[in-house]
């Protein structure tokens, strides 16, 4: 794994990387390499990585905890929790459809370009025209709305909800939205962003999330290698126990086992061809990628998890080499863990 990632760094696919893989008993291999930026300090155990869309399943765990506590159901429509959606074409879209990316709310919407404030962007979400045909379309916009539903159902801000329901119970003490000034110094750099006119470091890379204040259901979390490994280990152990302190075994089974067009609830389902999880996982595996170069994959059948954290968008998002890097990394990780 180190050799694979070192070669990728030599090709300047990222300036730094951190990785861990193991079983429910704990990590069996871990490491770091490279630098926080191309002219920066070395990556360390305490490096904070912009998790990007790996935020989605972490927020999804908080949503599923609200299902357990009776604060919402998977069939709740958006308008039940967000009155501003009443009377719109999105009023009847359900939490289930948001979690599985089947809501027909279009994804890949650069709303930040025309929405300078949080209020402007939230208003734009309400008025986004739906896709005409049903199906699966990966939609960060849907997860922005899901985060708002979670806030309404719980009566607390999303960052507090995620902390109380997910990261604190798992001991993920370094995983948070919105880094303090002092913590930004140990964050890996991301893009030299034309919209911001600077290299982004320690603030959220996702532009829509930045307009929303850095706290959103689709992106915004930062975390360390050991924190993500704790999450991977807990999910790996989650058969008979669920995720202790977070969700129960039946809830986790529904979350990860409900498969709709390659999607579980807030997770990506494993598919045998061109999966970022590689070629060697089983049909029970699930995971998620982050645009910045992060990922978490879990295979409960193999008792296997793997975390890969890179800053592949530094200084530019132009390369798509991370797709093959992820596959080769996970093949090597599975081979090492099962050896």
Automatic annotation (TrEMBL):
MF-aspect GO terms: hydrolase activity
Gene3D superfamilies: DD-peptidase/beta-lactamase superfamily
Cited PANTHER family: BETA-LACTAMASE-RELATED, BETA-LACTAMASE-RELATED DOMAIN-CONTAINING PROTEIN
Keyword Ribosomal protein applies: no
Presence of the UniProt keyword Hydrolase in the record: yes
InterPro entries (UniProt xref): Beta-lactam-related, Beta-lactam/transpept-like, Diverse_Enzym_Activities
UniProt keyword list: Hydrolase
Span of domain Beta-lactamase-related: 3-322
Species for this entry: Nonomuraea cypriaca
Pfam families for the chain: Beta-lactamase
Top-level taxon of origin: Bacteria
Protein name: Beta-lactamase family protein
């Amino acid at each position: 794994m180190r050799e694979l990632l070192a070669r990728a760094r030599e090709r300047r696919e990222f300036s730094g990387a951190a990785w861990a893989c193991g079983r429910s008993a704990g990590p069996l291999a871990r490491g770091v390499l490279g630098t926080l930026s191309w002219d920066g300090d070395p990556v360390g155990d305490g490096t904070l990585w912009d998790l990007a869309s790996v935020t989605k399943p972490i927020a999804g765990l908080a949503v599923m905890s609200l299902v357990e506590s009776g604060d919402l159901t998977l069939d709740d429509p958006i308008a039940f929790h967000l009155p501003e959606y009443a009377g719109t074409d999105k009023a009847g879209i359900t939490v289930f459809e948001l979690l599985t990316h089947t809501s027909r709310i279009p994804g890949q919407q650069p709303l930040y370009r025309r929405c300078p404030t949080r209020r402007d962007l939230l208003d734009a979400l309400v008025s986004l025209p739906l896709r005409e045909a049903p199906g699966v379309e990966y939609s960060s916009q849907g997860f922005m709305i899901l985060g708002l539903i979670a806030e309404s159902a719980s009566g607390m801000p999303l960052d507090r909800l995620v902390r109380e329901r997910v990261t604190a119970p798992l001991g993920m003490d370094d995983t948070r939205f919105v880094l303090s000034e002092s913590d930004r110094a140990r964050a890996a750099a991301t893009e030299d962003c034309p919209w911001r006119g600077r290299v982004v470091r320690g603030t959220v890379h996702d532009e829509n999330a930045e307009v929303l204040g850095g706290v959103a259901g689709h992106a915004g979390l930062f975390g360390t290698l050991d924190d993500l490994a704790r999450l991977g280990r807990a999910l790996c152990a989650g058969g008979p126990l669920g995720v202790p302190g977070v969700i129960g075994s039946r809830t986790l089974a529904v979350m990860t086992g409900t498969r709709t067009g390659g999607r579980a609830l807030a997770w990506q389902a494993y598919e045998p061809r061109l999966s970022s999880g590689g070629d060697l996982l089983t049909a029970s595996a699930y995971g998620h990628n982050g645009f910045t170069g992060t990922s978490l994959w879990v295979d409960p059948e193999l008792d296997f998890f793997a975390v890969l954290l890179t800053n592949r968008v530094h200084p530019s998002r132009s390369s798509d080499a991370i797709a093959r890097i992820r596959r080769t990394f996970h093949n090597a990780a599975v081979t090492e863990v099962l050896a």
